Amino acid sequence: MKIALLQAQSHPFDYAANLKKLNQYAQQAKAESAALLVTPEMFLSGYVLNQQTQDMAKQFPLDQVQQIARQHKIALVVGGPRWVDDTVMNSAYFIDEQGKLLNHYDKTHMFGDVDRSQFVAGDRAVVITEYQNLKIAMLICYDVEFPETVRAAALAGADLVLVPTAQMQPYSFVNTSLIPTRAWENQVYVAYVNQIGIEADFHYVGLSSIASPLGKVLALASIHEEQLLFADVLPELVEQAQQLNPYLKDLRRDLF
Q: Is residue 196 part of a domain?
């Protein structure tokens, strides 16, 4: 399956502008034969919402995202707030090419005050969505920096881990060093999809990437440019990597 990652700058508080951008890149990704397009963390709303977090979550335009998926016949994983039980989650929505909401994932590890002041942490460590013969897990930003999260997804059978993020200075080593390591040590594809530009005090570092189960970086974006990245996700390469590096098979789970 061919996937596309959208590295882009979000327009905070402006659903209309971000939906327009999503529509544009969904059309472009489909034209390049991608089956799935993934956006950065909190892309549709902006990340630093402060006092408007609840209002933005209540107004999340899920129906319009679903319409874009249907129109272009492409699956979407879109980052944004989710209103549930009078709280706000930092979430990723998985929508198929027919516009059906297949799943959602709520960020489980809160990064500093920016997360703790706006969101409640999710409590599902592993969320697997089966799509086009792949088992796809989702994490969000800080989650991937804990080795246990990707390992849990791999042990649950994931072939691909999608990570919408809003990674900022001075943490670009996560993009360039940690992501291929996570892929290698778990024999899974890891797709890391970042924002660019400046929002509040955050200077986003771009450098979105896709790493193979063998730890090879298949595509790497620039620091500042808005762009699409593409890669083919091959289940047979996951199997090959598991045979070459049988970490999951050899792991002494009884000791942990």
A: yes
Three-state helix/strand/coil letters over the chain: CEEEEEEECCCCCCHHHHHHHHHHHHHHHHHCCCCEEECCCCCCCCCCCHHHHHHHHHCCCHHHHHHHHHHHCCEEEEEEEEEECCEEEEEEEEECCCCCEEEEEECCCCCHHHHHCCCCCCCCCCCEEEECCEEEEECCHHHHHCHHHHHHHHHCCCCEEEEECCCECCCHHHHHHHHHHHHHHHCCEEEEECECCEECCEEECCCCEEECCCCCEEEECCCCCCEEEEEECCHHHHHHHHHHCCHHHHCCHHHC
Is 41 assigned a catalytic role? Answer: yes
Residue 67 lies in a domain: yes
- Domain assignment of residue 223, given as a range: 2-249
Q: Is the pTM above the cut of 0.70?
A: yes
Walk along the chain (256 residues) and give the pLDDT tens digit of each residue.
999 999 999 999 999 999 999 999 999 999 999 999 999 999 999 999 999 999 999 999 999 999 999 999 999 999 999 999 999 999 999 999 999 999 999 999 999 999 999 999 999 999 999 999 999 999 999 999 999 999 999 999 999 999 999 999 999 999 999 999 999 999 999 999 999 999 999 999 999 999 999 999 999 999 999 999 999 999 999 999 999 999 999 999 999 8
Q: How many domains does the chain have?
A: 1
Annotation says 2 is catalytic: no
Catalytic residue among 2, 20, 32, 41: 41
Q: What is the CATH number of the domain that holds 152?
A: 3.60.110.10
Active site includes 97? no
Q: Which of 20, 130, 135, 141 is catalytic?
A: 141
Domain membership flag for residue 140? yes
| Per annotation, catalytic residue among 107, 135, 145, 199 | 107
